[in-house]
Specification:
The complex is a heterodimer of chains A (377) and B (250).
Chain A (H helix, E strand, L loop, with lengths): L1 H11 L6 H17 L15 H4 L13 H10 L8 H8 L2 E7 L9 E5 L6 E2 L1 E7 L4 E8 L6 E10 L4 E8 L6 E10 L4 E8 L4 E10 L5 E10 L4 E10 L5 E10 L4 E10 L6 E11 L5 E10 L4 E10 L3 H8 L5 H17 L5 H14 L7
Parallel strand pairs in A: 1-4, 2-5, 3-6, 4-6, 5-7, 6-8, 7-9, 8-10, 9-11, 10-12, 11-13, 12-14, 13-15, 14-16, 15-17
Chain B lengths: L2 E10 L2 E11 L4 E5 L6 H9 L4 E10 L2 E2 L5 H7 L1 E4 L6 E5 H15 L7 H14 L5 H4 L1 E2 L5 H15 L3 E5 L7 H14 L5 E6 L3 H5 L4 E6 L2 E6 L2 H9 L10
Parallel strand pairs in B: 3-10, 3-11, 6-9, 9-10
Antiparallel strand pairs in B: 1-2, 1-4, 4-5, 7-8, 11-12
Classes of the chains: A alpha/beta (377), B alpha/beta (250).
């Protein structure tokens, strides 16, 4: 598989007119060639076997970038550690860059919309850099809706400046046979806030890496998510929340609903570094298994190197609550309907966070349609 | 006869709690079941509602002449049996109005009547909410989530108002209520009381009965009804305490 990319890369790089761009891409491709795709032998990929993805002969679309683009944005593009795994290296080699700057003290009324739809057999490599300058405010809506068997390998970087305020909705609703790999890399400045909601409903195999780092005091982040899976779907979220500085708060609520033969993985690391006193970090991962054949591997990890902190974390894997079910039955709801309503409620706790009504409604419907028997609400 | 309980023996995890209970309830009546802790009051409520962890050992429960015990909890509800919970359950992520409309429409469907769409139901719900003086902002909130004790109990009575049961069992509805909340809840129940329905008040204390006057008072001790009378019995109990009736048989 790497060899099929080698030939395509040789042609692709012809389209890169910037010397700097060429150098970066070549370096990245060399790293990809050396690393290859991750395998279950890599600790971070233990439960997610990407073989079904890596053995496909993906087609890379030609580079479409005006010659000056890279040079103009080189400073902004640089600084990303693309060597973290084969996917991030591959992304950088074939990256289609887009850069968004929210100017100082500016509040965007309209959301920044990032929409991706990989066509059949194609691999797309969006690489987005969002720079929220000091005191700015915006909402990012990142949505994936491949309609066929495509492969999206995305990197989204968000640099939240001092006192800036970013809301980020990431919604992955690819076709059931699509592949989706994504890395979200976030840095927070002093007194800034970043509130993200990550919804994964689609795809045959999807993996989302979130890497969030507080770089100055007084930051606050919400990193929440929902994966709702059925059939043979596989989803993996790996997140790292890194408290490197004092007095920052992080909140993480991830929920999973797994039906049929689906498989979920949640791995959430929270680091509280030595000097990060006054940290408040909360993390939870709750999973609802609706079938005996569904499976989830959850591993919340809290690593604290400081005494003056308030931290909690926990994970649950279970079925619907008996007392809740009985309550709904005593109101006359038949058992199937009651169970579906509880499942809906479980998922809605995350979806209700979404502040854009049209997106929330769409997801409501998607969740309802996922239930064994649709409910009209 | 609306409800007929005949020589009911029931319990939980192999332990017999109700030991031969008899009760007859007609339409238009309000019955109070009083008794000390552990007398079997909650067991009776749970058995009537069909809680899966409670087992019926022997005896009969007839509702409008039909065997209630062979019906599933949801079938009982659609037939017109309602239980207000002592500890109402929180259902995060499901709004009160969504939940109530689904429940209401299931009942309509069961009786071959017209279902209501969200707009029609909203009007219906607004009217019903007046009965318990509930602000329509509660409709959008998740069922019981973050509600105070009093709000939860009011929400139970709102559900009763929406579902219009033939028989309502109010399980310790007065527990945990301050005097104002108690008054609102009791007034709500009084407004719902009619010649077409019956209410069973299950309570430890007499004070609820100052607000909702029962036609009959039954005193439960050690799994059996040991004393029966009119509303004056509750006052007598309040004065003399449960020791007065313990061990006594009817």
């Amino acid at each position: 598989m790497e060899t099929s990319f080698t030939e395509q890369f040789r042609q692709f790089i012809e389209g890169e007119k910037s010397a700097g761009g060429r150098e970066l891409r070549e370096k990245a491709f060399a790293v990809f060639a050396a690393l290859g795709f991750p395998t279950p032998n890599d600790e971070d990929w233990k439960y997610t076997n990407v073989a079904p993805l890596s053995r496909e002969p993906w087609v890379v679309p030609p580079l479409m970038l005006s010659p000056s683009d890279f040079d103009r944005n080189e400073d902004r593009i640089a600084g990303f550690d693309f060597g973290r795994n084969g996917f991030t290296a591959l992304n950088m080699a074939f990256a289609c860059f887009s850069i968004h700057v929210i100017p100082k003290d500016m509040a965007f009324a309209e959301p920044i919309k990032l929409e991706y739809s990989a066509a059949n057999r194609m691999m797309t490599s969006p690489h987005v850099v969002i720079i929220a300058e000091a005191g700015s405010k915006a909402t990012i809506v990142e949505s994936y809706h491949a309609s066929s068997s495509g492969f999206t390998n995305a990197v989204t970087r968000v640099m939240v400046g001092d006192n800036a305020n970013i809301t980020h909705y990431r919604v992955q609703r690819n076709a059931p046979d699509a592949f989706n790999i994504g890395t979200t890399d976030v840095t927070l400045g002093a007194g800034s806030s970043y509130d993200s909601t990550n919804i994964n409903l689609g795809g045959r195999l999807s993996r989302h890496d979130i890497d969030l780092k507080f770089t100055a005091e007084g930051g606050e982040a919400w990193v929440d998510g929902l994966y709702m899976l059925g059939g043979n779907q596989h989803h993996d979220t790996h997140s790292i929340i890194d408290h490197t500085v004092p007095n920052c708060n992080s909140h993480q609520t991830y929920k999973g609903v797994l039906n049929d033969n689906s498989r979920g993985v949640f791995n959430g690391k929270v680091f509280v570094r030595e000097n990060a006193h006054g940290t408040d970090a909360q993390q939870s991962n709750k999973n609802l298994l609706l079938s005996n054949d569904a499976r989830v591997d959850t591993k919340p990890q809290l690593e604290i190197f400081n005494d003056d902190v308030k931290c909690s974390h926990g994970a649950t894997v279970g079925q619907l609550e008996e007392e809740q079910l009985f309550y709904l039955l005593t109101r006359g709801l038949p058992e199937v309907l009651a169970k579906n309503l509880l499942t809906y409620g479980f998922a809605e706790e995350v979806i209700n966070k979404i502040g854009i009504e049209s997106i929330k409604k769409e997801l409501d419907v998607a969740v309802l349609n996922r239930l064994g028997r649709p409910i009209e609400l | 006869m609306l409800l007929e309980v005949k020589d009911l023996h029931a319990g939980i995890e192999g332990k017999e709690i109700l030991k031969g209970l008899n009760l007859q309830v007609k339409k238009g009546e309000v019955h109070a079941i009083m008794g000390p802790n552990g007398s079997g009051k909650s067991t009776l409520s749970k058995v009537l509602a069909g809680h899966p962890t409670y087992e019926v050992i022997s005896g009969e429960v007839l509702f409008e002449g039909k065997n209630l015990l062979e019906l599933e909890p949801d079938e009982r509800a659609r037939e017109g049996v309602f239980m207000a919970f002592q500890y109402p359950v929180e259902v995060p992520g499901v709004s009160n109005s969504q939940f109530l409309r689904l429940a209401y429409n299931q009942k309509m469907l069961h009786h071959g009547l017209e279902e209501l769409d969200p707009l029609e139901f909203n009007d219906y719900l607004k009217e019903k909410a007046k009965i318990v003086d509930m602000d329509p902002q509660f409709f959008k909130r998740s069922v019981n989530e973050g509600f105070s004790g009093g709000e939860k109990k009011r929400n139970e009575i709102l559900q009763m108002a929406v579902l219009e049961p033939k028989l309502a069992v109010l399980d310790e509805t007065d527990s945990g209520l301050d005097i104002d909340a108690l008054r609102i809840v009791a007034e709500g129940v009084n407004k719902l009381r009619s010649s077409e329905n019956a209410i069973i008040l299950v309570t430890h204390y007499q004070r609820l009965l100052n607000y909702i006057q029962p036609d009959f008072v039954h005193v439960l001790a050690n799994g059996k009804i040991v004393k029966e009378g009119g509303k004056e019995l509750a006052l007598e109990l309040e004065e003399k305490g449960y020791d007065w009736v313990k061990g006594a048989a009817v």
